[in-house]
Amino acid sequence: MTEKWFKPGKHTGWKKSQSTATRRRHLLDATDKRKSLDARYLEAGRRSQALANVTEDKRTSELAGRDARYFFAKAKKQK
Question: Would you say 51 and 14 are in contact if contact means Cβ atoms under 8 Å apart?
């Protein structure tokens, strides 16, 4: 049995089988609603990047990385 050292703070409902819009909506919905929109984009991007970094599944890593880049670009545009 392998040790799972990564413990996500919140379950987002993100699945690689979902459409792009659905995955991203789930990530954004899991962020703190009290924060500004650009801060929420950064939070969603970091959450997605963390998933991309720790997974061993190539497809999950690709999709999570794309979602992370999308949210980082949106946060940059907001400023």
Answer: yes
**CA 76 distance to own-chain centroid:** 16
DSSP track, 58-74 = HHHHHHHHHHHHHHHHH
Asked whether residue 34 is assigned to any structural domain, the reply reads: yes
- By CB atoms closer than 10 A (0-12, 13-18, 19+), residue 55 is middle
pLDDT averages per 10-residue partition of the chain, 79 residues = 70 93 96 95 94 93 97 90
Query: What range does the domain containing 45 cover?
Result: 20-78
Cα–Cα dist 60/36, whole Å: 28
